[in-house]
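Lecture 7 notes: from sequence to structure.
We start with the chain below.
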Amino acid sequence: MSTRIGSVTVYLSSSSDVAEAYHAAAADLGAALAAEGWTLVYGGNSLGLMRVLADAARAAGGRVVGVTPQLFVDEASADRAADELVVTPDMRSRKAALEVRGDAYIALPGGLGTFEELFEILVGRILRYHDKPIVLLNVNGYYNPLLAMIEHGIAERFIKPRAREAYAVADTVGEAMAYLRARSAGLGRGGHPEGEPSAAE
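Predicted structure tokens for the same chain:
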């Protein structure tokens, strides 16, 4: 099934104290989304990788929508340069706004908050509350332990094998964009383009 994409929600960390490869991936992704003409929807903080992502999208002429709770506005860490800044009362409503405003989702490497957001949309897709594409951008193999844990859960019968079909894994920004581009166009068997990452990988 194809999904016409106009906006992409990106989940990622607000940390700056991470390897340069993660900074580079965030910058590359922001620029790539802008080049595609897709609106960036993200956590709305002007810190760390979040700022790198949003600044790169803006520098490339892209539209940026930030979604942040009032807590971060009060702490003066909200992205005031965003084309649209959505302020929510709490983290739960922030997650809901991030979900509804995206036509697709990309999870860059992140911490506990990123994991929480990722698993919520994964479960939503598995339960068929939505059919929006989800991509784990596996920079530096960051998600390998998580993917192994999912496989362990399948082997132990806590997770159904069809969970593998809920997401795709991409090692580079180029692969992630090609996958979403093909999903938007409805190309490939089962919505997956030939030669691009599939949810079973």
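Points to note: The domain at 7-185 is CATH 3.40.50.450 (Rossmann fold). The chain has one domain: 7-185.
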